[in-house]
Amino acid sequence: MDPSIARALIWAACGCGFTWLMTTAGSAVVLFTGKDPERGKLAHHIFLGFAAGVMIAASVWSLLNPAIEQAEELGQIGWIPAAGGFLLGVAFLIALDTLLPHLHVGSDEPEGLHAGWKRTTLMVSAVTLHNIPEGMSVGLLFAMASQASGAAGDTYLGMAFALALGIGLQNFPEGAAVSLPLRREGFSRWKAFVVGSLSGIVEPIFGVAVVLAAGWISPYMPWMLAFAAGAMIYVVVEELIPEAHLGEHSNVGTLGVIAGFVIMMVLDVALG
Fold this sequence. Notes:
Strand content: under 5%
Structural class: mainly alpha
Helix content: over 70%
Distance between the termini: 28 Å
Radius of gyration: 18 Å
Shape: globular
């Protein structure tokens, strides 16, 4: 195996493993909460808003900006792969949302194609849609860091670690945002914790898969970065922000978005 690929695999495994660990840690919040549904709802709004803010900032600074810069370095018109890849990412998530059977927490009607899956499986499937582009994003940046040399390689590596840290930070509240509603729906604490933890396992899977495919996708890396950004923004606009603003705690959800955006922006600029 090429040493650069092996190095990227180790980085991606560690980075995405960290994001999954943070999902697990966030899911563990349910083990220490009481049965007060209002407290759980308030935390749910904050966590969803924070996750949305992190994903918006990461899409711009960690994905779209590098996509434009790399396209221009390759002699391309920067905005073409950025816009085209972004739209392809949105289309990909729309297709998954249409075809993959899933059930959002708090909803009674499954979405996607009909399947005889259990309710828990359908809920995990819904969260999987969120985590696929996150794992891809981290893997893509580590793959770019391994392919670049000198200062460019160091820059991409810093951006990759910043993104992994930012995604990890938002995965902590996101894990809680999965397990707490499950607890309110009658799941036991431990069952809600396990389901919340498993919701993040696709991140290391897709992060490592992207690195393994780096040799084939290298010429299309600007498109892939923008693709991941489009998929993440679709999740934010379609699900996270609307759910963060349901009910009487809408202001809290808004503040969560702002906090997540600022923290991810600072991380990316400082480390990248």
